[in-house]
Amino acid sequence: MEVKEKEITTEEKLNEEKIFKPVENYNIRNNSNIIKVFCIISLFLILIIFTSFIIFTLLNGINPNIISGVYINNINVSGLSREEALKKVKNEIISEIPKEITLIHDKYKTTLSVEELSINYDIESAIDKATQIGKSGNILQNNLKTIECLFSKENINIDFSFNEDFLKSDLEDASSKLPDKIIQSSSYIEDNNIIITKGKSGCIIDIEKSAEIIKQNIKNINLKDNIPLVTYKQNPNSIDIEAIHKEIYKNPVDAYYVQNPYQIYPSENGLDFAISLEEAKNLLNEDKDEYIIPLKITYPNITTSMIGTEAFPDLLSEFSTNYAISNRNRTTNLILAANKINGLVLMPGETFSYNKIVGERTISAGYKEAPIYVEGRVENGIGGGICQITTTLYNAVLYANLEIIERSNHQFVPSYANASRDATVVYGAIDFKFKNNRDYPIKLTCSVEKGIANFKIFGLKTNNDYEVIINSRITGSTSNAIYSEAYKTLKQHGNVISTELLSKDTYKKH
To answer: In Å, how far from its chain's centre is CA 426?
Structure first.
C-alpha cells in the first residue's frame, strides 16, 4: 500500500516561521551583548597595559640608578647610583686582593708580588656598562631589557691588565728553584781542569699553562687561595763532549794596538783539552756523576803587558816613596811585589786586586822576613814592607782619578806616607782594589831602586781629564790614637769642579 507524503501548506510554513523566529532573534541579541562586553574589557585591559607601559617607561627613563638584576663580577649593584656602585665594587675587589699570590707545587710554595704584577681592574668601564643596561636602546628595547633583568641577572665581567712579562719571568725563576727541579748536565773550569757533571731528571714549570691559570684567577679575583703550578717531568740533556770542546777551545791571540785613533787589542790565552777528544769520550762511558778532563793553556807570543809605552802615549800620574836601602830583606820584598805589578795593563772596566796580582807572600815565592805590624806591635814577618808598594800605588791611582774599590789604613802611621795617604794589605784578609774607569786601557810601571819606590800610570788623556789635588790632615788625637782624613779635589781649566772625602782614619800611637 502506497503512503503519500503530506504536503505542507503555505499557511503551515508561516506558522512554523512564527514559532522559531523569536528564538533566533534572542540568540543574535545575546551574541551582540557578549561581543560588546568583550570589546569593553579588552579596551580596558589595553588601556591599563598602555598606561602601565607609559608609567614604566617614564619611571625607567628618569631613574639614573642601575636597573635591578645587574651584577659586576657577581657583585650586586642593583638600584645603586654610579658613585655608590663604584665605591662598592672597589671596596669588595680591594678586600679580595692580597699583597702576594701564593703558588704551590706539592709542598713547595713561592709567591708573586701583586704590586710588581701591576694588576689593574678597569672598574670605571664596567660601571659605565652597568649604568647603560636598559637605557641605551629605544623605548621598547629598554623596557624589555629591564623586565628581562628582573627575572635573570646580567653579570658584567671587569676588564683587567697585568704585567705578563713579569709573571713569566717569575715563573721561570720559580722553575729553577723547585726542590725536585730538573738538573741539566753542565761543565765548568776549575784550575786546569774542566769539570763535567751529569744531569738528573726532574720537574719543570709549564710557563704558558701556569700563566693562563693565574690569569683566570686574576680575572675571577680569586687570589687569596693557593694556586697550583702546572709542571711536567723532563730528562736532562745528554752530555755532548764535542759541544763542550767546541765551546772551550780557542787559539791564543797576540796583543796589538793601532794609532789614529789609539786602540789596544788585548792578548788572549788559548785553551784545549789536554787529552784527545776520543779519550774524553771514553771517560764518559764510566757511570759517574762527575767527570774531570785536564786542560792545557797555550800562551800568545805577545801579551798585553808586552805592548810598549808607545801604545800608552800619556803619563796620567806618578808617585814615589822612599825606603832604606840598608834593610836588604825589606828591599827584596819591595822588589818582588813591584815586579809582579810592573807592566800590568788594565782594560776599561777591569778591576785590579793587589792580593790576586802579587799573590801569597811565602818563603817559596822568595819573600824575606822584615818588620810588620801585628796586633799593635812590630814583629818580623814574611813579606814585611810590601805595604809600601801598596801605598805608593794607592797615591798614583788617586792622582790618575781612578775609582777606588777597597782600601784600608795601617794600624800605625807609616814612615813613608802621611796619615790617610797609606794603604795596607794582608793576604786572604785585607785587599787593595781599584777599577780602570777610563775609556782607554792603562799601563802600570813600577820601579824599586836607589831608595825610591816609584809608580807611573800611562794611558790616553782626553779633554775631560781633571787636575787632581789630594789633601790630608790630622783632625785630632788622644793619648792612644790619631785621627785624620783625606780629600780629593778636581779642577778643570783652573776651576774647582768638586771636592770629595776619600777617607776618615784612626791610627794607634807608638
So the answer is: 37
Question: DSSP state, 268?
Answer: B
> Residues 303, 306, 308, 313: is their CA dihedral positive or negative?
positive
The pLDDT tens digits of the residues spanning 32-43 come to 777 777 777 777
Q: How far apart are CA 67 and CA 82, in angstroms?
A: 11
Measure the CA–CA gap between 300 and 255, rounded to whole angstroms.
8
Q: How many CB atoms lie within 10 A of CB 26?
A: 10
- Neighbouring residues of 81: CB distance < 8 A, sequence distance ≥ 6: 64, 65, 66
3-state helix, strand, coil in the chain (%, to 5): 35, 30, 35
Q: Given this model, what pLDDT does residue 1 score?
A: 44
Q: Which residues of the chain fall below pLDDT 70?
A: 1-30, 44, 47, 49-63, 370-383
- Taking each helix axis from N to C end, the angle separating 123-132 and 82-96, rounded to the nearest 10 degrees, works out to 140
Q: Which of 350, 347, 357 is CA-nearest to residue 265?
A: 347
10-62 and 139-151 helices, crossing angle to 10°: 80
The radius of gyration computed from the CA coordinates of the chain, to the nearest angstrom, equals: 48
Query: In this structure, how many other beta carbons lie within 10 angstroms of the beta carbon of residue 42?
Result: 10
Helices and strands in the chain, H and E counts: 12, 28
pLDDT for the residue numbered 10: 57
* pLDDT value, residue 205: 95
